[in-house]
């Protein structure tokens, strides 16, 4: 009879300080010696983590009302355009937003400055209404002066991501870093066997309401992320071999730290935000133990040529090969480099492990499971003059 | 003994002269070629690290310049803001001289000895943590 554990049983152990918690890397190492049946007996919770640039991120803020009040219909924060279509004094700062005249400072930098407690210049314009007569305001704000500010990221923590190379004879500047010509380098992004969604590929435990580590504090998974795609091909170990599912996450920005949330600018691409995410995965049964045992050499991903139109696939490699420093592409040895921080991801997985061991962080059963039959639509063009 | 880096630029007609031979043979200078862009019949450039006595280096450079080779000393260095680094690895993707590498703990290490100041890391760092330092 194989062991099955409930969320409540595991939480009871967490509360009494008896839960056995390992990081996903530790459990992958353990799996070389022990079977899933033995792992489910020994381990209660496994922590996973990632720290990478996640462009689809942003934050909601409520500034509070001035006297006389203004209905903000155009808003700038340190010169960065932020969303003006949310009532009078609410806004959403998109991480990738920027003033084209100052492309190296964008929404992600605004978010980081707020987290760091800096004062920012707010400038807003309105047409003036009977209930909001003011037409212009210029003032300073900080995390101390605003009402709410919370991070809400529509698409984070991609379940696997492709490797980027460039076969052309020109350097390519991308969100996957600087790609040297003629296959002189290859970049990869996820934290492999430590990556959250690769450790629960069928979303048995990660779903709506899952409590997570987000940007240095507690956050929640609130929806399947945008471009949530469950129909990508999977390998024999049950993991998709290219970017597939994602999660939407939320958390209190006032409690976050720039240690785990960092603004970035990619040359000739634009602004993005490094986001630190950690997700605890309960070892409910043998099946979950088997999923969590996945090792770098079993996680494969697709090599794409970012230099050519349509980013054609050039082959498949695994994370053990990627981390070795070189892979083979088109018969040629190509040097590899990561573009997300494994060092930070390990730190997050370790922190989360410690919190759970101390009884400070309990696991949550999803309120709703995520869909298992989604695919992606492209954008059709209906014609017409540009 | 002194070690100094120079960018050598030479005209089309001097491409066939055994420059390094003379530097070694006549001035006892040790040469380390860090980067070379040489096309026969066209202008070319070399990034060299020259090691020798101060006097020999001076004479060797004077000889090169007498042969229409311009020698630009490189007093530039790359400065890395280590404190702010998140160890993402983006800079290692472009560092073909192997000065920037990830260590066994996946933390970035910078070995200035290997740096040829190609400056590719400057725009490659998403956190803008590399600067060119012009001081000697």
From TrEMBL, chain A:
Domain Homocysteine biosynthesis enzyme sulfur-incorporation: 19-363
Stated name of the protein: Homocysteine biosynthesis protein
InterPro entries, per database record: HcyBio (IPR002708)
Gene source species: Gaoshiqia sediminis
From TrEMBL, chain B:
GO molecular function: 4 iron, 4 sulfur cluster binding; metal ion binding
Keywords, ordered alphabetically: 4Fe-4S, Electron transport, Iron, Iron-sulfur, Metal-binding, Repeat, Transport
InterPro entries: 4Fe4S_Fe-S-bd, 4Fe4S_Fe_S_CS, ACT-like_dom_sf, Fe-S_Ferredoxin, NIL_domain
SUPFAM superfamilies reported for this sequence: 4Fe-4S ferredoxins, ACT-like
Domain 4Fe-4S ferredoxin-type: 76-105, 106-135
Entries under PANTHER family matching the protein: ADENYLYLSULFATE REDUCTASE, BETA SUBUNIT, L-ASPARTATE SEMIALDEHYDE SULFURTRANSFERASE IRON-SULFUR SUBUNIT
Protein name as catalogued: 4Fe-4S binding protein
Species, as recorded: Gaoshiqia sediminis
Lineage: Bacteria, Pseudomonadati, Bacteroidota, Bacteroidia, Marinilabiliales
């Amino acid at each position: 009879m194989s062991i099955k554990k409930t969320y409540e049983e595991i939480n009871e152990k967490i509360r009494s300080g008896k839960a056995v918690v390992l990081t996903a890397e530790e459990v992958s190492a353990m799996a070389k010696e022990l079977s899933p049946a033995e792992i489910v007996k020994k381990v209660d919770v496994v922590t996973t983590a990632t720290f990478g640039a996640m462009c689809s991120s942003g934050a909601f803020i409520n500034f509070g009302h001035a006297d006389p009040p203004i209905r903000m219909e155009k808003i700038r924060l340190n010169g960065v355009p932020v969303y003006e279509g949310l009532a009078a004094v609410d806004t959403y700062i998109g991480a990738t937003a920027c003033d084209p005249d100052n492309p190296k400072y964008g929404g992600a930098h605004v978010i980081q400055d707020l987290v760091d407690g800096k004062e920012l210049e707010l400038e807003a314009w309105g047409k003036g209404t009977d209930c909001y007569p003011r037409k212009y305001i210029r003032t300073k704000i900080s995390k101390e002066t605003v009402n709410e500010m919370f991070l809400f990221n529509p698409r984070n923590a991609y379940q696997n991501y492709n490797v980027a190379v460039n076969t052309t004879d020109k350097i390519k500047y991308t969100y996957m870093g600087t790609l040297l010509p003629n296959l002189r380098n290859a970049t990869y992004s996820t934290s492999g066997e430590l990556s959250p969604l690769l450790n629960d590929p069928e979303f048995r435990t990660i779903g709506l309401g899952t409590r997570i580590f987000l940007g240095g504090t507690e956050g929640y998974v609130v929806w399947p992320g945008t471009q949530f795609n469950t129909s990508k091909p999977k390998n024999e170990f049950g993991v998709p071999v290219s970017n597939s599912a994602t999660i939407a996450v939320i958390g209190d920005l006032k409690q976050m730290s720039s240690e785990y949330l960092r603004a970035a600018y990619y040359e000739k691409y634009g602004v993005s935000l490094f986001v630190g995410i950690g997700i605890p995965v309960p070892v409910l049964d043998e099946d979950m133990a088997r999923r969590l045992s996945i090792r770098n050499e079993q996680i494969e991903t697709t090599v794409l040529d970012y230099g050519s139109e349509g980013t054609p696939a050039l082959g498949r490699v695994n994370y053990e090969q990627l981390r070795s420093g070189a892979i083979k592409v088109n018969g040629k040895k190509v040097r590899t480099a990561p573009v997300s921080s494994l060092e930070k991801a390990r730190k997050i997985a370790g922190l989360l492990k410690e919190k759970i061991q101390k009884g400070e962080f309990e696991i949550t059963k999803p309120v709703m499971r995520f869909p298992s039959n989604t695919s992606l639509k492209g954008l059709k063009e209906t014609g017409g003059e540009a | 003994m002194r070690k100094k880096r120079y960018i050598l630029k030479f005209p089309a007609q001097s491409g066939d002269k055994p420059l390094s031979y003379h530097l070694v043979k006549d001035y006892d200078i040790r040469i380390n070629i860090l980067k070379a862009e040489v096309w026969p019949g066209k202008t070319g450039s070399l990034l060299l690290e020259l090691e020798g006595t101060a006097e020999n280096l001076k004479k060797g450079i004077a000889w090169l310049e007498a042969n229409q080779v311009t020698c630009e000393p490189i007093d530039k260095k790359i400065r890395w803001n280590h404190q702010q680094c998140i160890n993402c690895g983006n800079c290692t993707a472009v560092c073909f001289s192997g000065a920037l590498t990830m260590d066994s703990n996946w933390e970035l290490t910078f070995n200035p000895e290997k740096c040829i100041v190609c400056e590719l890391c400057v725009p490659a760092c998403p956190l803008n943590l590399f600067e060119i330092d012009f001081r000697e």
